[in-house]
Design brief:
The complex is a heterotrimer. Chain B is an alpha+beta fold. Chain B contains 20 helices and 36 strands. In chain B, the strands form 11 sheets. Chain B has a 7-stranded mixed beta sheet, with helices on both faces. In chain B, strands 11-20-19-18-12 form a 5-stranded mixed beta sheet, sandwiched between helices. In chain B, helix 13 (440-451) crosses helix 14 and helix 16 packs across helix 17 (619-628). Chain B starts with 7 loop residues before the first helix and ends in a 5-residue tail after the last helix. The mean pLDDT of chain B is 97. Chain C folds into 3 domains: 7-53, Uridine Diphospho-n-acetylenolpyruvylglucosamine Reductase, domain 2, CATH 3.30.43; 58-173, Uridine Diphospho-n-acetylenolpyruvylglucosamine Reductase, domain 3 (2-Layer Sandwich), CATH 3.30.465; 180-285, CO dehydrogenase flavoprotein, C-terminal domain (Enolase-like, domain 1, 2-Layer Sandwich). In chain C, the strands form 4 sheets. Chain C has a 5-stranded antiparallel beta sheet with strand order 4-5-10-6-7. Chain C has a 4-stranded antiparallel beta sheet with strand order 11-12-13-14. The longest helix of chain C has 22 residues, at 264-285. Chain C is globular, with a radius of gyration of 19 Å. The mean pLDDT of chain C is 97. Classes of the chains: A alpha+beta, B alpha+beta, C alpha+beta.
């Protein structure tokens, strides 16, 4: 079976790799590139712990082949902070106690990031639906929702001050 | 607030110690994707292990053909029970005094049991190799029901126990019987029942469920053949116990075994036991002299690792006509699966089930639990159960509701009538537990007022009077006491090791500190809460107190984290270790200030000379002096270790009230309101407590409303993926309201009781109570879980109220 | 968790895709959104030797109007269906119903074409397509043909799509002004297939129902068109009597598989409930 050459930009850096077609994106990130933020919690595409951002969309990287990312722009949790300055979603999760064991957190963060890009001022219901592809066993989601609401406010404030 | 920086208030805030909702110290790595979980580890030369599992529940293994798998490029080894036999590792002791197969030895006892392992260059090749191993089975009749299992002509499951009519817990009555355990006083209970004017009984089943933490189980075993040392990173809630067991099984001295529990993605009791996968990975690493990683899939996790519950319970209450409980009798048939691998303290094969007299003053009680083998995966104690306390609380709370219904009494009223009163603590129950402290009535009053209980009952009455009401409304109330903090070593041991716990603290010359404990957090926030305890005890800001757990080479011996034992046991060890340092610090302070120790007061972060505020020494100053000018007779340094053997369990309690509306057309249930009041004694970090409560309530919601592990007649486990196993998303999960009272534990150094299992223990019967309450006007006394819309629709239809 | 090995092809035109399907025969499968196929491969229930990824074929994307029809490219994702101003305006049943499929991440990849072509009775778009009188444009080595949704679904995983054909487009007439519609889906949780679901498209003139479609999801080996239910409603007013008649008629054609969602009796009863809910909701939307 022939490997395929792919060129993928991940967190702003372009990587050229030869991958087996069957290599899942989540394994490519974790094993090949040592970006172990995206986690694996199931094999049936339910838990969302593997969520990353591909070409501006939240994707479950366990249900996506690395070869499908040739030419794509990928953002993982490791790319949220900017030169050591945490992104608003990361700050908000910390401040609102939106994590406990941390296993769902990278997927939640990357998903929340994209959710707020798509919908900067979501209602609580919209947040619940928006993160319905990300399971958490520790928090009961209550503080995660507060965190997303807080991040929304932070992002709106910074865009207002920037304007 | 503009208090001067030197004020007591300001200094307390600066410590961020006990009682403060300080943000967590561990978060930085998690929010940046830099956690260190087992599957994140890569070691040079590391190989991958995968497991060949049995597709059938009960069978003889006729033949295993490894050739095709071994021929695949990149495959290093294929091992079966035959390969483990010379090492005597094909079977291993369990935590419950039984033995379990590591790899199926001529016989398969449950579906998905481990039959062979493959070791390959990477996980992709390992997965291919698993498919290439050919196993021939001869199927045997399966036993999936514990009552069937006890019939005289039931198939023999445990041929390896043939002829053994005594097990670890006494006499075995039948080839599929494990133990019968009793507590309480049968003749006193029988006498109470004989004399009582009112008797109620109820059969109830607590279904088998699975903790399903988001991270599955796994390990990286690394045997260094040059040093003869074994290091294993492992998803374990009890790393020291693992080290001791691994040393015993492998023959490698414990001093050359290092077990590390790194970051763990949720435990919930799923990561206490020692699984065949771990043993096999360690064996493979020793045999091959290379690191071996094994991480299971979700299906493997649900199908083969420690399940929870599976208790068939018959409860009886005897009472006076005005609702005073006179006696309790409980009989349980416990389905343990194919091996008894329950993670219980050795002397308690039914865990702490005998807490089942609950929050009530029950004068006479008896409980009996019969453990049984079936063709299911082993386990039973897991999932935030506090050692069967989930089952016990469910039993008593359901029985009290049944009694209330029989007498036409309000469910809050009957509870008040039977509560152990505040003045009665410490209270010794009919089962011999000495409850440390409690004030149930105050808590109940608080909840009933907060939710306007009378208003809710009035609303329910109005809805019941309306034949067209589209929903049935139910109000569930649970007033639970649970028991945690295992435990006093005279009663509680794991494989002979007493269930103490430990802490060592070392203060550095410049005033920061490092502390290590024998527990291991899996998300409970120990790196923060433990630092907060030390901060308050020693006046050092929690921000500069490093907390480490999980590395057996550095952490003092402990029994791990499960059963909400960390705060009660390790938390006490922390406080007492800190107080040893405090005592030495006082001597140093007295020396530095040239006064007598008796002339000193402690205030927040310093020793002050009585009557002279200007003369003081902070802990930072004392630390420097400890390394430089220790007084005569004192060693340099400032550290202490304490091993704490608790004098008793602790008894957190709670009052939970839930309101549900059941759609009469579909059986769908909306949880309209859920009010959870918890009393865990002293509260170290309210923010973290609330987080734990939210999580526990959500797990309880899932258990009560949808989780199940159904088996068909052939022994196939149905619904072993997340398609069917109900893990609620944010859409399904209700909003939780939390509240608290504080009734400290008198025997605990900081009065804390532990809390994280209470919301799971208490919420599950609350949901059942609410659902049953919705039907109670129709004469329904009980409905078994899960309360899925399917099952509730059938109940609606059976009771003539489906739309 | 790990799929078996396969060769990977990423054609950039429909013609290229068809050529590959033709040459590789039944050893090949099309990869659309991948959220049906890849999970099956990861569980090793499916092991195609070749995957033909059709995500890079521009002709399969896009939503446009053509005369009075809305034309939806087969590779339009569920998210795109939800967000398409054209579908929201002209076929709002689809944009609203798509919100009930899976979760946001899955919707970003799952496609309307894949949902239709897979032949899974649990998928939602077959019933939706029948309710909007859709037809499907299929392309194969012999050229293009159009099959009405009503004539496309034969059985579980069996459709009119030949092994060497590609589903290219979904055509449906834009809703006339005043059209009411609804999709009521009972499920155990987010991400689950329907326990039972019903799509309704309705038009009224005064009190009388002048146009009606009633279709059902996951209560048979395929999506079902409830003709008798429609007959009970057409030219009648929508009242308790006609709603009950329709619900009963729909229940009569149900043939659900018993599983952990429920037994036959429950699923059938729920189909009837979803019919009731959908009829009322659709009527409320009729201008």
């Amino acid at each position: 079976m022939s490997k395929k050459l792919i060129s993928v930009t991940i967190n702003g850096r372009t990587h050229e790799s030869a991958v087996e077609p069957r290599t899942l994106l989540v394994h490519y990130l974790r094993e090949e590139l040592n970006l172990t933020g995206a986690h694996i919690g199931c094999e049936t595409s339910h838990c969302g712990a593997c969520t990353v951002d591909v070409d501006g969309q939240s994707i479950k990287s366990c249900t996506h082949l690395a070869v499908q990312c040739d030419g794509s722009d990928v953002l993982t949790v490791e790319g949220l902070a900017n030169k050591g300055v945490l992104h608003a979603v990361q700050e908000a999760f910390y401040e609102e106690h939106g994590l406990q064991c941390g296993f769902c957190t990278p997927g939640m963060l990357v998903r929340s990031y994209r959710l707020l890009q798509e919908n900067p001022n979501p209602t609580e219901d919209e947040i619940r639906i928006g993160i319905s592809g990300n399971l958490c066993r520790c928090t009961g989601y209550q503080n995660i929702i507060k965190a997303v609401q807080s991040a929304a406010r932070k992002l709106q404030e910074s865009s207002t001050t920037a304007a | 607030m503009n208090a001067p920086t030197d004020s007591v208030e300001a200094r307390e805030l600066a410590l961020a110690g006990m009682g403060q909702s300080r943000l967590r110290k561990e978060d930085a790595r998690f929010i940046q994707g830099k956690g260190n979980y087992v599957d994140d580890m890569k070691l040079p030369g590391m190989l991958h292990m995968d497991i060949v599992r049995a597709p059938v529940a009960h069978a003889r293994i006729i033949k295993i053909n490894k050739e095709a798998a071994l021929a695949m490029p990149g495959v290093h080894a294929v091992l079966t029970a035959d390969d483990l036999k010379p090492l005597k590792l094909h079977w291993m002791p369990t935590l419950a005094g039984d033995v379990a197969a590591v790899l199926a030895d001529e016989k398969v006892h449950f579906q998905m049991q481990e039959v062979a392992i493959v070791i390959a260059d990477d996980r992709y090749i390992a997965a291919d190799a698993v498919e290439a191993v050919e196993v021939e089975y001869e199927e045997l009749p399966v036993v999936m029901d514990p009552f069937e299992a006890l019939k005289p002509d039931a198939p023999v499951l445990r041929e390896d126990l043939a002829g053994k009519d005594t097990g670890a817990h006494g006499k075995r009555e039948h080839h599929n019987h494990i133990f019968t355990w009793e507590a309480g006083d049968k003749s006193a209970a029988d006498a109470a029942f004989d004399a009582a004017p009112v008797k109620v009984s109820q059969h109830m089943y607590y279904p088998r469920v699975h903790p399903c933490p988001l991270e599955t189980c796994g390990c990286v075993a690394n045997f260094d053949p040059i040093r003869g040392e074994l290091t294993t990173h492992i998803t374990s809630q009890a790393p020291h116990v693992v080290r001791t067991v691994v040393s015993m099984l492998s023959g490698i001295p414990e001093s050359k075994v290092r077990i590390v529990s790194p970051d763990i993605g949720g435990g919930f009791g799923n990561k206490v036991g020692i699984y065949p996968g771990y043993v096999c990975a360690i064996v493979a690493s020793i045999v091959l002299g290379r690191p071996v990683k094994w991480v299971e899939d979700r299906i493997e996790n649900i199908s083969s690792t420690a399940f929870a519950r599976d208790y068939h319970m018959d409860g009886e209450l005897a009472a006076s006509e005005d609702g005073k409980i006179l006696g309790l009798r409980v009989n349980v048939v416990a389905d343990h699966g194919a091996f008894d691998a329950c993670a219980d303290p050795t002397k308690f094969p039914a865990g702490l089930f005998h807490i089942c007299s609950g929050s009530y003053d029950v004068p006479a009680a008896h409980a009996s639990v019969k453990g049984v083998y079936t063709n299911k995966a082993p386990g039973g104690v897991a999932y935030r159960c506090s050692f069967r306390v989930t089952e016990a609380v469910y039993l008593i709370e359901r029985m009290v509701d049944v009694l209330a219904q029989k007498l036409g009494m309000d469910k809050a009223e009957i509870r008040s009538k039977n509560f152990i009163k505040k003045e009665q603590f410490p209270y010794t129950s009919a089962f011999g537990f000495e409850y440390d402290s409690g004030d149930y009535q105050t808590a109940l009053d608080k909840v009933l007022t907060a939710v306007d209980y009378k208003g809710l009952r009035a609303e329910q009455a109005a809805k019941r009077a309306d034949p067209d009401s589209p929903t049935l409304m139910g109000i569930g109330l649970v007033t639970f006491t649970e028991v945690v903090g295992a435990g006093p070593s005279k009663m509680c041991d794991i494989l002979g090791v007493g269930m103490f716990d430990s802490c060592e603290i070392r203060i550095h010359p410049t005033g920061s500190a490092i502390a290590r404990m024998g527990t291991i957090t899996q998300g409970q926030g120990h790196q923060t809460t433990y630092a907060q305890i030390i901060a308050t005890e020693l006046g050092i800001p929690s921000e500069v107190i490093q907390v480490e757990e999980g590395d057996t080479s550095t952490a003092p011996y402990g029994l791990g984290t499960y059963g909400s034992r960390s705060t009660p046991v390790a938390g006490a060890a922390i406080a007492l270790a800190a107080r040893k340092i405090h005592a030495k610090a006082k001597k140093i302070a007295a020396h530095l200030l040239e006064v007598n120790e008796n002339d000193l007061d402690w205030e927040v972060d310093r020793f002050k000379v009585k009557g002279d505020d200007a003369k003081f020494k902070t802990m930072t100053q004392i630390a420097w002096a400890a390394y430089n000018q220790p007084p005569e007779g004192l060693e340099p340094g400032l550290e202490a270790v304490h091993y704490y053997d608790p004098p008793n369990f602790t008894f957190p309690f709670g009052i939970y009230l839930g309101v549900v509306d059941i759609d009469r057309a579909t059986g769908e249930t909306k949880v309209r309101r859920f009010y959870a009041l918890d009393d865990c004694g002293t509260r170290i970090n309210p923010m973290i407590i609330d987080g734990q409560i939210h999580g526990g309530l959500t797990e309880g919601f899932a258990v009560a409303m949808g989780q199940q592990m159904p088996f068909d007649a052939q022994g196939n486990l149905m619904g072993n993926t997340l398609m069917d196993y109900f893990l609620p998303t944010a859409v399904e999960t209700p909003k939780w309201e939390t509240d608290f009272t504080v009734t400290p534990s008198p025997h605990h150094p900081i009065g804390a009781k532990g809390v994280a299992e209470s919301p799971h223990v208490g919420s599950i019967p609350t949901f059942t109570s609410a659902v049953v309450d919705a039907f109670s006007h129709l004469g329904v006394t009980h409905l078994d879980m899960p309360h899925s819309s399917y099952r509730l629709w059938k109940a609606l239809r059976d009771n003539g109220v489906a739309l | 968790m790990i799929p078996p090995r396969f060769e990977y092809h990423a054609p950039t035109s429909v013609g290229e895709a068809i050529q590959l399907l033709n040459d590789l025969g039944d050893s090949a499968k099309l990869l659309a959104g991948g959220h049906s196929l890849l999970p099956m491969m990861k569980l090793r229930f499916a092991a195609p030797e070749h995957l033909i990824d059709i995500n890079r074929i521009p002709e399969l994307r896009g939503v446009r109007e053509d005369g009075g029809n809305v034309v939806i490219g087969a590779m339009t994702t569920e998210t795109e269906v939800i967000n398409s101003p054209l579908i929201q305006a002209k076929l709002p049943l689809l944009s609203e119903a798509a919100k009930l499929i899976a979760d946001p991440q899955v919707r970003n990849r799952g496609t309307i074409g894949g949902d239709i072509a897979h032949g899974d009775p649990g998928n939602d778009h077959p019933a939706l397509a029948m309710a909007i009188d859709a037809s499907f444009v299929l392309q194969g080595p012999g050229g293009q043909r159009t099959v009405a949704a009503d004539a496309f679904f034969f059985g579980t995983y069996m459709t009119a799509l030949a092994e060497n054909e590609v589903l290219c487009e979904i055509h449906a007439p834009a809703f006339a002004s005043g059209t009411g519609w609804a999709y009521e889906k009972l499920k155990r949780k987010t991400g689950d297939w329907a326990t039972a679901a019903c799509a309704v498209v309705m038009r009224k003139s005064g009190d009388k129902i002048t146009h009606i479609r009633v279709t059902l999801t996951n209560v048979g080996p395929t999506a079902l068109r409830a003709h008798d239910a429609e007959a009970a409603l057409l030219n009648n007013a929508l009242d308790e009597s006609s709603i009950s008649a329709a619900a009963n008629a729909a229940a009569a054609i149900c043939d659900p598989a018993e599983d952990l969602r429920g037994d036959i009796e429950y699923k059938t009863a729920m189909a009837a409930q979803m019919v009731r809910r959908a009829l009322k909701a659709a009527a409320a939307r009729c201008a």
